[in-house]
Specification:
27% of the residues lie in helices and 13% in strands. The protein is built from 14 helices and 11 strands. The protein has a 6-stranded antiparallel beta sheet, with no helix packed on it. It has a 3-stranded antiparallel beta sheet with strand order 6-8-9. InterPro entries: Kinase-like_dom_sf, MAPK, Prot_kinase_dom, Protein_kinase_ATP_BS, Ser/Thr_kinase_AS. Keywords: ATP-binding, Kinase, Nucleotide-binding, Serine/threonine-protein kinase, Transferase.
Length: 453
């Protein structure tokens, strides 16, 4: 860490804090994530999900992990620096984003997701705070909850911001996959158009209530598996026919509304993949490079010229992640870690994906990197509680079992929450599983954002 000078803390969460820093030798501005937990072995460090996932991914729309440092038991992640996150960009905005701007942001995120899912990972915690922005480029960040698609369920450590949480997870399903990222993108896309959250629930039950009020209650035809999940925990969906999204998001085009509806489908199987989303008519006017792996395969073989273009793009977007020893100033080609048993500062070399040359698919970005600038405000703190161990019915399910939302939208003697209006004050407390009457929304767009569980 002697090569870096910490300038300013830009974010603080449960697991660590993020600092804007500068490399004393090169003058490069970076973001350094300092973990609060002590790590006493490199084996423990390199097996962290954030390290394991990012070492396998090199893409212009995924934040680059430049270096991992362990010094006196403290672990530091050195990332490329981005000016702000998407939430900071829109939270104080008065004028709506144009559809071209929304299309630009979403298309880039879908490119990153398509690459990530092809590499065998899904994010599990997509939200505006985890999408970092510099000028016209956006990158997916915070892979602390990333999971391998082929890993064996049950998934017992799923935590995410409630407003972007897929309904199968709200109903305590242990069988879910990359389609939870697609649900989150539907909610994020709607928020970019309206500048307010689409499903601002104050608890798990209230979250489902708000989803039903907007997209309509699930049926045997729309989501039979969801009805079975609800039945297993003695939960009854509130009955609602929903509303037309075009009424909630009048600035969105018909194609945009159609894509949001598909992404926010009750049934995960009916949500498009990231690759399919990129082919949606909403993105027809995009002038971005779509890599061959995301296109419909042509019946003829590639020509040598296209192969050369592919090789050039792969070389252009190869971003190795370096874990280095203090005494070494350059990277080595070996993909293996050098065992360093000395005390004090430890680093390791070459955390680049071992099979990147054979498997990585490059994406071409039309935007140029701009000079980094410090963000205007601190990042919203992320509060994450570890999930309980898997068992037949969780404590959350027990609480769901004790309540029933009927057609009148009540639990016990509690009144039905008021219809959604612009703005929301989130009053739910961490761990609160019960539906309580929501406060009347304020007429202004400003709302208090809080991350729970």
């Amino acid at each position: 860490m002697e090569r870096y000078k910490l300038i300013k803390e830009v974010g603080d969460g449960t697991f660590g804090s993020v600092w804007r820093a500068i490399n004393k030798q090169s003058g490069e501005v970076v973001a350094i994530k300092k973990m609060k937990k002590k790590y006493y072995s490199w084996e423990e460090c390199v097996n962290l999900r954030e390290v394991k996932s990012l070492r396998r991914m090199n893409h212009p729309n995924i934040v680059k992990l430049k270096e991992v440092i362990r010094e006196n038991g403290i672990l530091y992640f050195v990332f490329e620096y981005m000016e702000c996150n998407l939430y900071q960009l829109i939270k104080d905005r008065e004028k709506l984003l144009s559809e071209a701007e929304v299309r630009n942001w979403c298309f880039q995120v879908f490119q990153g997701l398509a690459y990530m899912h092809q590499r065998g990972y899904f994010h599990r915690d997509l939200k505006p705070e985890n999408l970092l922005v510099t000028k016209h480029q956006i990158k997916i960040a915070d892979f602390g909850l990333a999971r391998e698609i082929n890993s064996q369920p049950p998934y017992t450590e799923y935590v995410s911001t409630r407003w972007y949480r897929a309904p199968e997870v709200l109903l305590q399903s242990y069988l879910y996959g990359s389609k939870v990222d697609m649900w989150a993108m539907g909610a994020i896309m709607a928020e970019l158009f309206s500048l307010r959250p689409l499903f601002p629930g104050t608890s798990e039950a209230d979250e489902i209530y708000k989803i039903c009020n907007i997209i309509g209650s699930p049926t045997e035809d729309s989501w039979a598996d969801g009805l079975n999940l609800a039945s297993a925990i003695n939960y009854q969906f509130p009955q609602s026919v929903g509303v037309h999204l075009s009424a909630l998001i009048p600035s969105a085009s018909e194609d945009a509304i159609n894509l949001i509806k598909l992404l926010c489908s009750w049934d995960p199987c009916k949500r498009p993949t990231a690759t399919e989303a990129l082919k949606h008519p909403f993105f027809q006017s995009c002038f971005y490079y779509v890599p061959p792996t995301l296109r419909s395969r042509a019946p003829v073989s590639r020509t040598p010229s296209s192969a050369g273009t592919k090789a050039t793009l792969e070389q252009q977007y190869a971003h190795p992640v370096v874990l280095s020893n203090l005494k070494v100033t350059q990277s080595f080609p070996s993909p293996k870690f050098n065992a360093c048993l000395s005390t004090g500062v430890q680093r390791k070399l070459d955390l680049v994906n071992q099979d990147a040359s054979g498997n990585d698919k490059a994406f071409k970005s039309t935007t140029k990197q701009q000079k980094y600038r410090p963000p205007g405000r601190k990042k919203s703190p992320t509060v994450i509680n570890k999930a309980r161990a898997a068992r037949g019915v969780t404590d959350a399910a027990d609480k769901f079992a004790s309540m029933t939302i009927g057609s009148h939208g009540q639990i016990g003697a509690q009144p039905k929450p008021p219809p959604m209006k612009a703005g929301v004050q989130w009053t739910g407390e961490s761990g609160d599983m019960f539906l309580r009457p929501t406060h009347q929304f304020q007429p202004s767009r400003t709302y208090t954002r809080k991350v729970v569980e």
